[in-house]
Amino acid sequence: MRILRFFQRQLATRPLPTQMCIAGTISGCGDCFAQYMSNNKGWDKWRTARFSFLSSCFMAPTLFIWFRVLEKVKGGSRTLLLAKKLCIDQLCFSPLFNAAIIFNLRFLQHQSIGKSCELLKEDWLNIYATSLKIWPLVQVVNLCFIPLNYRVILNQVVAFFWNSYLSYTTQRPIDHIEQFY
Question: Which one of 56, 57, 152, 157 is CB 3.0 to 4.6 Å from 19, fit for a cystine?
Fold first, then answer.
């Protein structure tokens, strides 16, 4: 119980760094899970590092700010307010966020900007369409029942499996990479 109290205290006093640490850890575990499930011969530690880095240094801070922006949406009944937030989240934020994640994953894989953009165009629609089957329900739960400082964490728990899917979908063997240096 002491560790839980410590965690809650850190989340209350330093929510962003705490969420960044948790996001990076969960994302790295998700990538390890994806590598294990895809029967990779060896563990690609750099791939796991890319996912952990991207999750802790890009995804968590972006979501931290985004959930605070969504809290500023006002007006209407509870149901109408939820519908507004969900539409803004899934139709405005999510397409851009997914694109940024895909592009950055490719770029961190040492692909050129041009090649990263090309692969983004190939993968984005499928990934976004798949995200619409999962994330709206997660966001309903998040926005209705989860306190603000815990929302990034719930997203990251679900993202364990989502990141496994992203890892499996976006990570190509090293011989497909166009080096930029």
Answer: 152
